[in-house]
Amino acid sequence: MGYKRALTIQDISCFGQCSLTVALSVISACGTETCVLPSAVLSTHTSGFKGYTCLDMTDEMKKILAHWAQLDIRFDAIYTGYLATAEQIDIVKGTFGARLKDGGLKIVDPVMGDFGKLYPAFDMDFVGAMKELCSVADVILPNVTEACLLTGKQYKFSYDEGYIDDLLDGLKALGAKKIVLTGVGYDDKTTGVVVYDGEIKRYYKHAREDRSCHGTGDIFASAFTGSLLAGEDEYGAAKLAADFVVDCIKHTPNDGSHPYGVRFESCLKALVQKL
Q1: Which of 40, 65, 133, 145 has its CA 20 to 30 A from that of 95?
Q2: Looking at the DSSP assignment, which residues form a beta bridge with residue 143?
Q3: Residue 110 predicted with pLDDT over 70
Q4: Is 135 helix (H, G, I), strand (E, B) or coil?
Q5: Is residue 87's pLDDT more than 80?
């Protein structure tokens, strides 16, 4: 597939295995040169920590992009994660147009909520801005909560395949070319991902782990992006990413000694060997 260069735009937690810490490591391990544009810098991530610091990087993002424009730096793919404001979403849309090579991929993880709730930092105006970003993406990676927010449909804890089909149709109507819907489970023992290109729907399921770990969404999105750029198609990349997440959870002690993330580093070799 040749040597590729990707840009990931999201926050960085100086401590805690999530966001840019994960994306830079995982995508690089998959064989792609990985560049970063931080949307915010935090001392730790926000789950389970008190007194963390947070620096909004909106102004600095503009300066970085202006410098890159002078150098005409371009990317084969841009993958976005957590964005703090609607203004940052506008910056990303401009970056898609200005910094992607011809035929470059636009991959959007519309990080906004989970477990049926919008994250406290966001409002419906932000959701509207995220809809616009998803409408120009080549691939979007929402969880079920985010799919509901993007489509205006009611969140359900229990659902059938028809409910998921309605979500997929709503996401297709936004304009995204391909959809990878994560966290889809039709019973209490399995979960998985649905990959939909607007015509063909494919579901990959695996055993559901009995615990929730911080940062696994970032790990999935990063492994998906790295696998896609390494030559996998969307379904193959989603399978590899889902299995990688499960592997990372299994390699993390469940004794309270590592509560802030998963030990993904020890699982990278196995992921790379599968590519």
Answers
A1: 145
A2: 182
A3: yes
A4: helix
A5: yes
Whether 42 and 13 have beta carbons less than 8 Å apart is answered as yes
Tell me if residue 245 falls in helix, strand or coil: helix
Contact between 180 and 145 (Cβ < 8 Å):
no
Tell me the C-alpha distance between 182 and 241, whole Å. 11
Backbone phi, psi, residue 156, to 5° = -125, 140
Please state, rounded to an integer, the average pLDDT across all residues of the chain: 95
Could you tell me the sign of the dihedral formed by the alpha carbons of 84, 36, 106, 215, in that order? Answer: negative
Query: Rg of the chain over CA atoms, in angstroms?
Result: 17
DSSP 160-198: -HHHHHHHHHHHHHHT-SEEEEBS--SSSSEEEEEEE-S
Give the tens place of pLDDT for each residue, 9-30: 999 999 999 999 999 999 999 9
* Nearest one of 123, 121, 167, 125 to 144, comparing CA atoms: 167
**Read out DSSP for 79-99?**
EE----SHHHHHHHHHHHHHH
- Residues sharing a CB contact under 8 Å with residue 159, sequence separation 6 or more, in sequence order: 186
91-105, pLDDT tens digit by residue?
Answer: 999 999 999 999 999
Measured in degrees and rounded to the nearest 5, phi and psi for residue 260 equal: -100, 0
Apex 24 CA angle, 40 and 64, nearest 5 = 50
Q: 210 pLDDT band (50/70/90 cuts)?
A: confident
Q: Where are the alpha helices (DSSP H) in 117-267?
A: 124-135, 144-151, 161-174, 216-229, 234-250
Please tell me the distance from the alpha carbon of residue 59 to that of residue 266, in angstroms, as a whole number: 36
Q: How crowded is residue 274: how many other Cβ atoms within 10 Å of its Cβ?
A: 13
